[in-house]
């Protein structure tokens, strides 16, 4: 464990918590893409499938973190699609999730390190996570704005994988550890946030709201 | 060295 991965995981936890708080406090999921949250839930379940296969006692924080990620993302989907369904902006959350899931699944079968079920599920989860934020960014471009709290969520969510890139550089240098698939997908994932990061740093930090040129 | 086998990251 290194400082970059630690802060990456903390940033990821913060993002999940910020989104849950936003939906719970405002009792509304306006401006939140339900599809992105569904894709994240799929990512966690396919990536941590080992938790369900051979359930080992929660002896370390990693297992607890995995369970937190899975339960929090499923609970977030429950809030969006059931509890606060009336506030779900289905019209603007219109990016076809199939266009992300099918290519990720296909690519996972073509480019992986081992052709076995668990490895392919893990690879699918890595590829899907790289593009899972697209419906959320698409929704913001359609509505032309993002609530400040949603911007903070996106900033934390984008920072998590950016910090993981630093973690991979660190591990390459000190542990000669290389996970090409995760690195390439992580770089793509972080690049997708670039224009948002620019807007966040130039606007939200100064207290302004993000309004995209309609 | 590819060390994918040990999935030690979240």
UniProtKB/TrEMBL annotation, chain A:
One Gene Ontology biological process: protein retention in ER lumen
Highest taxon of source: Eukaryota
GO molecular function: ER retention sequence binding
Membrane topology: Multi-pass membrane protein
Membrane spanning stretches: 36-55, 67-84, 96-115, 121-140, 182-201
Any Gene Ontology CC annotation: endoplasmic reticulum membrane
Keyword vocabulary terms for this entry: Cytoplasmic vesicle, Endoplasmic reticulum, ER-Golgi transport, Membrane, Protein transport, Receptor, Transmembrane, Transmembrane helix, Transport
Main location class: membrane
PROSITE patterns in alphabetical order: ER_LUMEN_RECEPTOR_2
Localization (cell): Cytoplasmic vesicle, COPI-coated vesicle membrane; Endoplasmic reticulum membrane
InterPro entries in alphabetical order: ER_ret_rcpt
Family per similarity comment: Belongs to the ERD2 family.
The protein's name in its UniProt record: ER lumen protein-retaining receptor
């Amino acid at each position: 464990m290194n400082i970059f991965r630690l802060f990456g995981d903390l940033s990821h936890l913060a993002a999940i918590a910020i989104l849950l708080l936003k939906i719970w406090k405002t009792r509304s999921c306006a401006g939140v893409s339900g599809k992105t949250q569904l894709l994240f839930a799929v990512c966690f379940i396919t990536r941590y499938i080992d938790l369900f296969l051979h359930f080992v006692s929660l002896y370390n924080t990693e297992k607890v973190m995995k369970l937190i990620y899975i339960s929090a993302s499923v609970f977030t989907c429950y809030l969006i699609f059931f509890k606060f369904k009336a506030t779900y902006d289905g019209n603007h959350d219109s990016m076809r999730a199939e266009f992300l899931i099918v290519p990720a699944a296909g690519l996972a079968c073509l480019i992986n390190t081992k052709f076995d079920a668990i490895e392919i599920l893990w690879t699918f989860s890595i590829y899907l996570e790289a593009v899972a934020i697209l419906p959320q960014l698409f929704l913001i471009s359609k509505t032309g704005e993002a609530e400040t709290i949603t911007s903070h969520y996106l900033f934390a969510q984008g920072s998590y994988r950016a910090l993981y890139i630093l973690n991979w550089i660190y591990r390459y240098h000190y542990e000669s550890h290389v996970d090409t698939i995760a690195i390439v997908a992580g770089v793509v994932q972080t690049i997708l946030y670039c224009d948002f990061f620019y807007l966040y740093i130039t606007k939200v930090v100064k207290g302004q709201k993000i309004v995209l040129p309609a | 060295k590819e060390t994918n086998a040990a999935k030690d990251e979240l």
